[in-house]
Amino acid sequence: MIREERFDRILAKVDESGYASVTDLSKLVGVSEVTLRRDLTDLENKNLLKKVHGGAKSLKKFFDKNENYQNKMAQNVSLKKEIAELASKAIEDKDIVFLGAGATSYFITEHIHEKEITVITNSQIILDVLSNYKNIKLICIGGTYRRETRSYIGPLSEKVVSDMRFNKCFIGVNGIDIENVYTSSLEASILYSKVLDNSTNKYIIADHNKFNVVDFSSFYKTKDISTIITDDQIDNTLMRQFARKLSIINKKIYNKTINN
Q1: What pLDDT sits at residue 66?
Q2: Among 62, 106, 111, 169, who pairs with 98 as Cys (CB 3.0-4.6 Å)?
Q3: Domain residue limits, the chain
Q4: Are strands 96-99 and 136-140 parallel, antiparallel or unpaired?
């Protein structure tokens, strides 16, 4: 099979499935895994796919970056609430916490309103909810208002968080693989990378559907995250793969740890 034909078959498979492993692709086109990896590098350099650990992701599977907040709030609600409840257990009195914009961060607010904490956020909806609780010191970072996510981003937001330090931050993502964390907005990626840099404990909150998903902008190295908080539906093999690089927890693991 000539090289161009291999490329066509590789792209067709990756675009059809969203993700394909090196092993499966090498069998499909009849070459060694070493050759296949070189093919993937060439295709990535042409911006035709995205190499990830163990395979490749389709660039056609990006999330719609114009998806509005109401639509995101309505997706996988039970999973987001499960993750949010678990994330809230990491927040203690006197903490200085950054909550990023997003549905899962919003659901965290249901569990922290009795705590004596400082919350910094770029989310207007989180500001609206937590403004009712006098025990929570609330700081809005300001910036350019992004209507589709009801959040603040841009140079002013980046400047404000650059001068802040947080005990903990909780950031939702559009995708995460073994190498990088992704979002759909370049401006949001710049802001959240600064937040993560300035946080002692860096939490990524992501349901199992976000794993091995690539989006427009990679903004942080997965290995530099403190902990990923996810749901119980994540594949066990995938869980072990990520656990080799960083802490990853779900409700099942948390309950097992507590009971032991």
Answers
A1: 44
A2: 169
A3: 3-63, 70-259
A4: unpaired
Tokens read off for 62: 């990006």
Note whether 3-63 and 70-259 share their fold. Answer: no
Amino acid at 67: E
- Please state, in angstroms and as integers, the Cα–Cα distance from residue 122 to each residue in 47, 51, 80, 139, 225, following that order: 32, 32, 19, 9, 20
Fold for 70-259, please state it.
Rossmann fold (3.40.50)
Across the strands, what pairs with 204? 171, 228
What is the third-level CATH fold of 3-63? Arc Repressor Mutant, subunit A (1.10.10)
pLDDT at 37: 92
Residue 64 has pLDDT above 60, yes or no: no
Element (H, E) at 20: strand 19-21
Distance of alpha carbon 156 from alpha carbon 250, whole angstroms = 35
Taking only the tens place, the pLDDT of each residue in 173-212 is 999 999 999 998 889 999 999 999 999 999 999 999 899 8
Going from the C-alpha of 84 to that of each of 49, 112, 128, the distances in angstroms are 32, 10, 18
- Structure pTM? 0.74
Residues linked to residue 151 through DSSP beta bridges, in sequence order: 123, 146
Question: Helices 33-45 and 3-17 sit at what angle, rounded to 10 degrees?
Answer: 80
Residue 255 has pLDDT above 90, yes or no: no
Edge-to-edge strands of the sheet including 55-58? 19-21, 55-58, 49-52
